[in-house]
Amino acid sequence: VNTLQCSPELLVIDWMRAEFGKREAVGYAKIYENEDRMREIEREHILKRNFGGANQNDT
Question: Helix, strand, or coil here: 38?
Fold first, then answer.
């Protein structure tokens, strides 16, 4: 988040995998322009996994 200079609320981690015996992980993350666009594109379970339902609006 600091390196990319983005808001943590707009960063979505799709997946991460760690290899056995290594101190690193490889993953796929997306940064959105705004929250509305993120909710439009991302699947509900991915948003829940990233934000724990705290940022979810049921409107």
Answer: helix
27 in any annotated domain = yes
Residue 1 binned pLDDT confidence (cut-offs 50, 70, 90):
confident
How much is the CA Rg of the chain, to the nearest whole Å? Answer: 13
The 10s digit of each residue's pLDDT in 6-38 is 899 999 999 999 999 999 999 999 999 999 999
Total count of domains within the chain: 1
Residue 34, by phi and psi: left (phi above 0), alpha (psi -120 to 50) or beta?
beta
Cβ-contact 30, 48 below 8 angstroms: no
Instruction: Label residue 33 left, alpha or beta by phi (over 0 means left) and psi (-120 to 50 means alpha).
Output: alpha
